[in-house]
Design brief:
It is a single chain. Helix content is about 5%, strand content about 45%. The protein is mainly beta and about 325 residues long. The chain has a single domain, classed as Tachylectin-2, Chain A, CATH 2.115.10. The strands form five sheets. Strands 14, 15, 16, 17, 18 and 22 form a six-stranded antiparallel sheet that branches. β3 and β4 form a beta hairpin. The longest helix has 10 residues. The protein binds beta-D-mannopyranose. The site of beta-D-mannopyranose has 9 residues, from β6.
Length: about 325
C-alpha cells in the first residue's frame, strides 16, 4: 500500500463531545495556532439546539488538548453583529499576524451566512471587529502577512448560477474588502467538482503559500468532503501556481464516515513546524476533531508536479438551494 500523504495521529479522534465540560453535540472544524509556545484550538460545537458556538482547548504537544471550562465566543446579544449571529457561529479560522490573532468565523442568521471578524491578543479576551461580508459567504482565510500594506483573504461566495469557487479580495484596514477576483474553480467530474472552499490559513514556504482546501463531490449517498492542496504565488497570492490533482485526505476512519454528517473531513487549521512537517487538523463527520502530520515539501511537490488547472475547466453549476 502507498504511504499516506497525511499520517493520521494514533490517538484520533483527539477531541470528542464527551471531553467538553459543557453540553455540546459536536466538536469539529477547529482553527489552530501557536500562542506563547503552546497550541490553541478554537473549535466549533453544536449545542443541543442545533446552533453552534466556539470553544477553546490548549495543548503542549499539538495532539493532546485540554478544553477550557467555558465557551470562548457565543453569538452576540448586543452590538452591530448580534442580528447576524442569531443562529450561531461556525467554522473559525485563526490568522496570527503582527502580534495578534485574527479570527474569521461564519455568522449565521435569518439573513444568511456572513463572515464575522474578531481579534484577540491572548485568547483570554476577544473583541469583535466587524461583519466583513454580505450573505452568502463562508470559509474566509486571511494570509498571515500584508502585501503592499494590504490584507489579503481567500473566500467562497455562494452562487446559484456559477460553480462555488475560491475568490481573493484585499483590504487596507480589515473592514473594507474589494478588488475581488476568482482564483480557483471546481473541476468537472473530479473529486472537487461540486464545490471548493478555503480551509486552513495559508502557510508560507520558499516556493509559495501552501493552502489546504476542501472539495466536495456529490454521490447517490450524499456529498463527500475531502481535502486538497494548492500553491499560491508568494508575492501575488491571488495567483495559483498549482493545484494537486488528487486529494490528500478522504473520510476513512469510522469517526469520519459517520457522525453528525457522514463522509466529511473538513479542515480549518494547520500548524507548520520547524522540522518541515505540518500538523493538520480536521473535523471528522462534523462531530469530532482529528489530527495528522504531513511533510510541507511533499505537499508543495504535489501541487507543482501533479497539477490540474486551477481555472482551466469550469465545474458543474452549483445546485439551487
Ligand atoms: C459545510 C459547512 C461545514 C460542514 C460541511 C459538511 O457547508 O457547514 O461546517 O463541515 O458543510 O457538513
Amino acid at each position: 500500500m502507498r504511504r499516506p500523504i497525511v499520517e493520521r495521529h494514533s490517538d484520533n479522534p483527539i477531541l470528542t463531545p464527551d471531553d467538553i465540560p459543557y453540553p455540546v453535540a459536536t466538536v469539529h472544524n477547529a482553527g489552530v495556532t501557536k500562542h506563547d509556545g503552546r497550541y490553541v484550538m478554537l473549535f466549533r460545537s453544536h449545542r443541543e439546539n442545533g446552533r453552534s458556538l466556539l470553544g477553546l482547548a490548549d495543548s503542549e504537544d499539538g495532539f493532546h488538548f485540554v478544553p477550557r471550562p467555558e465557551p470562548f465566543l457565543v453569538p452576540a446579544d448586543t452590538g452591530p453583529l448580534a442580528e447576524y449571529e442569531e443562529y450561531g457561529l461556525e467554522d473559525p479560522r485563526i490568522c496570527s499576524l503582527e502580534g495578534e490573532h485574527l479570527i474569521t468565523y461564519t455568522a449565521y442568521s435569518r439573513h444568511g451566512a456572513g463572515i464575522g471578524l474578531a481579534r484577540t491578543r491572548d485568547f483570554e479576551t476577544v473583541e469583535r471587529i466587524a461583519l466583513i461580508s454580505q450573505a452568502d459567504m463562508r470559509n474566509v482565510v486571511l494570509f498571515p502577512r500584508r502585501f503592499g500594506g494590504r490584507y489579503v483573504r481567500l473566500d467562497r461566495p455562494h452562487s446559484g448560477i456559477a460553480p462555488w469557487s475560491i475568490w481573493r479580495s484585499e483590504s487596507p484596514d480589515l473592514v473594507h474588502w474589494g478588488n475581488s477576483r476568482v482564483v480557483m474553480t471546481p473541476l468537472q467530474y473530479h473529486w472537487d467538482e461540486m464545490k471548493i472552499g478555503p480551509g486552513a490559513t495559508p502557510i508560507e514556504t520558499e516556493r509559495g503559500w501552501l493552502h489546504i482546501y476542501h472539495g466536495v463531490f456529490s454521490t447517490m449517498d450524499g456529498a463527500v468532503y475531502r481535502l486538497g492542496v494548492a500553491l499560491h504565488a508568494l508575492e501575488d497570492p491571488g495567483r495559483v501556481l498549482g493545484v494537486c490533482d488528487r486529494w490528500i485526505l478522504a473520510p476513512e476512519d469510522p469517526w469520519e464516515l459517520t457522525g453528525y454528517v457522514h463522509n466529511v473531513v473538513f479542515c480549518c487549521g494547520a500548524v507548520p513546524e520547524e522540522d518541515g512537517t505540518v500538523k493538520i487538523y480536521w473535523g471528522g463527520a462534523d462531530k469530532v476533531m482529528c489530527a495528522g502530520t504531513a511533510r510541507l515539501d511533499e505537499l508543495v511537490d504535489l501541487c507543482l508536479e501533479e497539477s490540474r488547472p486551477p481555472l482551466g475547466t469550469l465545474g458543474v453549476p452549483a445546485p439551487q438551494a
